[in-house]
Amino acid sequence: MNTVLQTKGLCKTYIVNKRQNNVLKNIDLSVEEGEMLAVMGPSGSGKSTLLYCVSGMDRATSGEVTFNGKSTAKLKDKELARLRLDEMGFIFQQMYMMKNLSVLDNIILPALKSKKNNEERRQTVERGRALMHRLGIDDVGGNDINEVSGGQLQRACICRSMINSPKMIFADEPTGALNRSSSDEVMNELLSLNRDGTTIMCVTHDPKVAAKCSRVLYIVDGRIAGEKEMGHFDSSVNNLRDRERSLNNWLMEQGW
Amino acid sequence: MILNMLKKDLKRKKTMNAILLLFVIMCSMFAAASINNIAAVTGGIESYFDKAEVPDMTANIQPGDDFEDKVRALPSVSSVKSSDAICLVSSKDLSYKGRKMDNFINPPYLVSARDMAVKYFDENDRLIKSVPKGCFYATAPFLQKLDISVGDEFELNVGESRLPLKYMGRFKNPLSGNDDSSSPYILMNEDDYEYISREPKLENFKVRSLYINVSDPDDVRAIAKDTTYLTTREEHKSLYLYDMLSAYIMLAISIVLLVTVFVVLRFTIGFTISEEFREIGVMKAVGIGNGSIRSLYIVKYLAIAAVGAFIGFFCSVPMSRMMMKNVTKNMVLASENSILMGAVSSVAVVVIILLFCYGCTRRIKKLSPIDAVRNGQTGERFKKKSFMHLGCSKLPSTAFMSLNDVLSAPKRFAVITLIFTLCMLMMTLMSVFSLTLKSEKILWLFDVPSSDAHIADIDYYRELLDDFGSYDTILDRAEKMLSDNGIPGKCSTCFGTVYEATYKDKKANLWFFVTKGEKNDLFRCSEGYAPRKTDEIAMTGYAMEDLGVGIGDRIKTVIGDKEYEFLITGKFYTFQGSGHAVQVHPDLDLVKNDSISTVGIQVIFDGDPDQATVDKNIEIIKKAIDSDKVFNTVDMIEYCTQMSDTLAAIKLMMMILTVIVTAMIVILMERSFISKEKSEIALMKAVGISNRSIVTQHALRFVIVSVLACIISLAVLMPIGNALMNYICSMIGDVSDIKCAVDPVDVFIVCPLVLIGITVIGSFLTALYTKTIKASDTASIE
Lengths: 256, 782
Description:
The complex is a heterodimer of chains A (256) and B (782). Chain A is α/β, with parallel strands linked by helices and 256 residues long.
């Protein structure tokens, strides 16, 4: 398997009121193609910061991040933006979208900005509609973003993250703002994408979400405190219960 | 508690509060300056004359004339002051740097600082109380074609008297003309004046002026002799006709500026308060009452408004001074109580801000806590926000996003469009006014017949000023001169004087004008028809009001020794005589009275020559009559109005002001947009949209708005321009129906380019600030 993402000695430090706050401390990590990695840890442990640093949304203080063979530290802002646009997808806890665009327009915007798919606008729209259809929200394409439910909006965010067929999707608490049924729907979609070959790195507090991932990292105080291989999830109920039980036991061992 | 919250708020939302403070400073500065200007202009001449203590009437008499004693004895006269002046027969009696002066045509008058019967002001509007020995001040006509500075040495040589004099600067004499054709006045130390007045050669050139305050000017007229030259306070006002045109243009511009800043302020307050809705929601949710929440914001805006108004007040003083200084160099136009006015305006700005704030926070009462948390939106929307669709659009995505942003927030961008439209109008209106006041469209309103060339040298038609009957001789001589020089043409002239007209028991002093010679296109009646017989006249609306008459009525006038009865056949417009004027039939002969008005001789060359030939012919006339005062139409208007420099200065000032206002608005608005849209910018960056796209999108929004503003302002320019121009002109004379002239390059290219250019630069540079927003900020945004 190819390594999509690799970090070596990754550190991130913030200076707040002249006080140094080391949020990430020497993180060594690698993510293989097709993996679905969950990052867990207590609040303030550095999970989201890790996600932002590895995805190029933030610059690391030191260390190296290699994405798809390219060192992101050496990339200029413009190149980094291009990399995020073409090779990465993002899903946030809050369903951030452009307020002045309809749901479908929000989804196709990255595709229109990207030069990756050399296609006509009509084809992009078709692709956007196809993604929405796949996620079951094709009837809200023309709606404003405040005219749809949270679950629908988060699925629209998944569509947006998928529109440029990225190598990897970064999800920061993707189900954090959703109810259980919406959360399940969103996770099922992410699993489905992962099954289709998209690598996913997902920050979560929810063991039920993490239990569906193939590997779980546990971060405490900016360091990787533990790592658990879960294997691929086969979507049967029994399998999920076993995985949740096993993960919870492991998390308790880690001090969760 | 409230103070603690306020302190934290001011600290935490530094950018938005700083922006609001800047807007308040700008608003307070412009409001105070504009209101000061409006007060100064509307007070105008009246206030200047009051300040200078101009009397009800002046009389020029020969020294020793018993008229002075008779006037003092009149019961209706409350006070009489007097002053002496010496007429220097030739300007060449003065020399500068060893060369005799010949830069002004009319002889200068020497006046003593001891006899200042009216108040004189220096060029900085300071009252002149005395003149040091060996020094002098001079009025504007002294300076024509002369490059001198304060401290330069002159020498006065008359007969055996020699007097070195040091130039102290310009002074403003409210009763002397300021155009090039007027006599210059030289204000000198009393001892120097005494010394020069003892010169025997000047004995016959002394003039005495009386400054009479009288309740009934007719009493003075009744005892006046033929040699007594009487001028009323109203007649003196005509000296400032063109200064007032510039002043009223400044008034119009000040009003536009005032409207602009209040629109900006209202928008900014509404915009910043909408930022606070989430916090308002939280406060409501925890049970804080509506009154307390409102008072918190009102206290906050009061604090910002008070600080801003205080700073703005101090900034307004130099600004107002600069604006008024550009309007006229000949009048003291500063408002009487400029400091008080400024202070009142600043307090008014604070009150208006609080009212705006009160109005904007009114919604707090209606909102439920959760509505407020949703930034004031209820979540229910029955109207779609985005009616354009990216998928269906043919625009590039960045352009689409910009246009969609504009269309999705129509109220917000409509306000900015309105502000830009007003800014654009300030520039284009000045261009239009300046061109109109230089164009032939306005010449006839000064009672100048349209023509190819204008001979304005008084020496060439001096006889006309002594005897109106000499017009034939003068016109024949001029036509002969043209034909002798191989440039045959026809001449005409328009002149006028004041007669008393009566209708039933009503009386009014009106200017009667007649045009003699070839060309007579001044007969443009807006109602009725121009006089066809010698017993018919056309009158201005103001003159009709004076007598309470209309078309079809008959008025009586004594011209010379004969009483005439005239039938009013039409109504016309003019600036002359402040609009209180009458046009008589060309065959009627007027007889010279106290006041005389003429703008010289007009020439129409035979064969309808082109402009180049006309200019060549003008040069030939100049040589033939040995005078530089022969003009083409454009130069004649400049000669008539002396407004070109003033208008150019106002136009430039307007351009600079508009650039500053537009740049400030663009920078502050864009900065507040960035602040409000931080989450969206971070999101766009997170999904990989480049900085360049984001900056372009933000700059393009302002470009769209500025282009729209240009289109709107150009569409309304002519109706507004015509209305304002006619309004301004109606303040000065009885003038209406003026159609403004447009310089297409200036109005359609230069002004839009300035507005769009400054918008592009301002918004682009400000939008670069979006670079500081990181993609990772997406998660940390409220």
